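Incident log, structure service

09:12 report received: a user says their structure output differs between two submissions of the same chain.
09:20 pulled the input from the user's history:
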Amino acid sequence: MGNPIETSILTFAETINRLTYNRAGIEFRPLPEDDPKQRRPDITRARALLGWEPRVELAEGLSRTIYDFEARLGR
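09:34 re-ran on a clean worker, output below:
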């Protein structure tokens, strides 16, 4: 669904690199014209209708995702 805690794409990429021990670095390119300026979803409806709240922080969620992909790939 998303998380109302705004995280920059740079922070996201740095976190993935740290968790995967990737030393390749990050490549910077111009933003597309339709790139959203805000990456902070409004989860008001999810809270109201589903009682849903994000409970897993970014690094933990990415760690779980990386572990799952590694398991699926047999690493």
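09:41 both user submissions now match this output. Likely a transient worker issue. Closing.
09:42 reviewer note: DSSP finds three helices and no strands in the chain. Residues 20 and 66 are 8 Å apart (CA to CA).
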